[in-house]
Specification:
By secondary structure, this protein is α/β, with parallel strands linked by helices. The protein has nine helices and six strands, in the order αβαβααβαβαβααβα. The structure holds nicotinamide-adenine-dinucleotide.
Length: 185
């Protein structure tokens, strides 16, 4: 096994893309329970990242502030450097929003996949070949196939074949999304 590969290191650097209601609290718990992991949460929304770094968190959950206080700056970090963090990540959780479409085909019931697609492109451009991708966003069945294919031209062939995607969205992961995402030290 190659030294420094994900299998060897058992995913030391965990990245979450999307610092919203799912990504922020899930990663705070993960960092708290798995102190040997470095957990980083990134978002395109700089104001949200500033809030996660500040004294008034952007999300209220009972006990969340205490968990963030215990872990932030130790093994929990927030950033807007999305390409840089993707490059450093061993495992990436995709927690971006998939709102219901408000126009076009599927209006009123289908998921708007534009944020997942943008994220997939970023991952395929910047991730290392061994990086494991966990789809935490609520996505339709078989999303992994098209999201790989849509971004494939920007990625070397050898990287495509080795990438690993794990669907883990809430509706598939009942009863507990957070706890199934825990990665034991
Ligand atoms: N909130 C819930 O209770 C809940 C429950 C089950 C499933 N989900 C699913 O989890 C996913 C996330 O939900 P949420 O409630 O956390 O959404 P949210 O809107 O609170 O957060 C999503 C975050 O992703 C960020 N984002 C969007 N595109 C990005 C990109 N390209 N790069 C980086 N960041 C980007 C947004 O700025 C936002 O901060 C959705 O698919 C949702 O359906 C949510």
């Amino acid at each position: 096994m190659r030294k420094g590969s994900v299998k060897d290191a058992r995913a030391k650097n965990i990245l979450c893309i999307g610092a919203g209601y799912v990504g922020g609290p899930s990663m705070a718990v993960l960092a708290d329970r798995c102190r040997s992991k470095k957990v980083t949460v990134v978002d395109v929304n700089a104001a949200k990242i500033r809030a996660w770094k500040g004294s008034k968190l952007p999300i209220f959950e009972p006990g969340l502030d205490k968990i963030v206080k215990r872990t932030r700056g130790k093994n929990l970090f927030f950033s807007t450097d999305i390409p840089g963090e993707i490059e450093r990540a061993d495992m990436i959780f995709v927690c971006v929003n998939t709102p219901t479409k408000v126009f076009g085909y599927g209006e009123g019931y289908a998921s708007d996949m534009q944020y997942v697609e943008k994220t997939a492109r970023m991952i395929l451009r910047h991730a290392r070949p061994e990086t494991i991708v966990v789809e935490k966003s609520t996505v339709p069945v078989r999303t992994a196939g098209p999201s790989n294919a849509s971004s494939a031209p920007g990625r070397p062939r050898e990287n495509r074949s080795k990438s690993c995607r794990i669907p883990n969205s809430w509706r598939r992961a009942r009863p507990s999304g957070i706890w199934r995402n825990r990665i034991e030290s």
